[in-house]
Amino acid sequence: MFESLSDKLDLVFKKLRGHGVMTEENIKDALREVRLALLEADVNFKVVKDFVERVREKAVGTQVLQSLSPGQQVVKIVHDELVSLMGGGEDNSLDLAAKPPVAIMMVGLQGAGKTTTCGKLARYLKAQRRKPLMVPADVYRPAAIEQLKTLGRQLSIEVYDSQADQKPLDICRNALKYAELSGFDTVIFDTAGRHQIDEYLMDELVHIRDAVDPREILFVADAMTGQEAVNVAAGFDERLGITGVVLTKLDGDAKGGAALSIKAVSGKPVKFVGLGEKLDALEVFHADRLVSRILG
Ligand code: GDP
C-alpha cells in the first residue's frame, strides 16, 4: 500500500504537533511531499509549481491547531485549493438549452475513448428523456462506423447511416438535417481521431464545427496518457474552442492528475469521467472525488 499524503505529512510535522505556527522553515519539507504527490499523480509540473506556491502562502503563519495534526491541516489546505482549482461548486452540466436539435461534437485522439463515450453519453441523455441521434463521422477508421452502429443497437438508440466513402463534413451536415426532420433533439457527432494532432484533421474538425454549430465540443482525454493529455487538450482548444472534457479510463491506475492540469491550463471544466468499458460506466464529474483520488 502507498502511504497517503496525510500520513507522509504527519511524519514531516511530527515535531511540530500541538504548538506553534507553521513557518517557511517547518513547512518546506511538507510542501516537498505535496509537490511529489501531485507529480506522481501526473499533474503538469508548471501547474504544480504555481499550486505549491499558493499553498505555501495560505499555510505560512497558520496557527497549529490542537484538534488537527499539522499534516492534516496542510492536507486540508491542499484539498480545498485543489477542489477550487478543479471548479468545485461550479455548474459543469451540459449546456443543451438551445433550439433542438442541439449538436454535441466529440473530439480527441484515436483510442481516447470517443466512440465508447458517444454511446455512454447517448445512454445518459436517453435516461434524461432526451432523444439522441448518434452520428459516425470517422470515415478513416471504417471499424469506427460499425462500432457506433453496434453500440446503437445495444442501446436502442438510432445511429445515422454513414458510409465510409462519404465526406465527414457531408455526413455531419446531412445528419443534422435528418435529425431536424425526424424529431431528434440531440445529435452526438463522433469525429475522427489521429495518433497525434495534425493540421488536416484540425481543418476538418473546424469545418464540421462551423457547419453544425455545436453547443458542446467535448474533448475526450485518456487519463492513462497523463501529462501528454494537457498539450493535446491545449491544441484542440486552440483550434476548436472546446467547451469541456471527458476523462476516460479512470477505472485504471491513473490518478487523474491530467484532469487537474487540463482545467488549470485551458480553463475548461471536466464534465464527465469514464470508469469502464461498459456503457453505464460514465459519471458526472465531481471535483472532490477526483481530488481525494489524487491525494489518496
Ligand atoms: P476512440 O478511438 O477514441 O473512438 O476510442 P474507443 O471508444 O474505440 O475506445 C478505445 C478503447 O478504450 C476501447 O477498447 C474502449 O473499450 C476503451 N475505453 C473507452 N472508455 C473507457 C473507460 O472509461 N475505461 C476503460 N477501462 N476503457 C475504456
In short:
This protein is an alpha/beta fold and 296 residues long. It has helices at 5-12, 24-40, 45-59, 70-85, 114-127, 142-155, 168-182, 199-212, 228-240, 257-266, 287-295, and strands at residues 102-107, 132-136, 186-190, 216-222, 244-248, 270-274, 282-284. Helix 1 packs across helix 4.
Structure report:
The protein is 49% helix and 12% strand. With 296 residues, it is of the alpha/beta class. It has a 7-stranded mixed beta sheet with strand order 2-3-1-4-5-6-7, with helices on both faces. Strand 5 (244-248), helix 10 (257-266) and strand 6 form a beta-alpha-beta unit. The longest helix has 17 residues, at 24-40. The structure holds guanosine-5'-diphosphate. Guanosine-5'-diphosphate binds next to helix 5.
Q: State the separation between the terminal residues, measured CA to CA.
A: 11 Å
What ligands are attached or bound here? guanosine-5'-diphosphate
Number of helices: 11
Unreliable residue runs:
none
Give the C-alpha Rg. Answer: 22 Å
What is the global morphology? Answer: elongated
Helix content range: 40-55%
Q: Report the sheet-strand fraction.
A: 5-15%
Spatial ordering of strands, largest sheet = 2-3-1-4-5-6-7
| Total beta strand runs | 7
SSE pattern: HHHHEHEHHEHEHEHEEH
Mean pLDDT: 90
Question: Mind describing the biggest β-sheet?
Answer: 7 strands, mixed
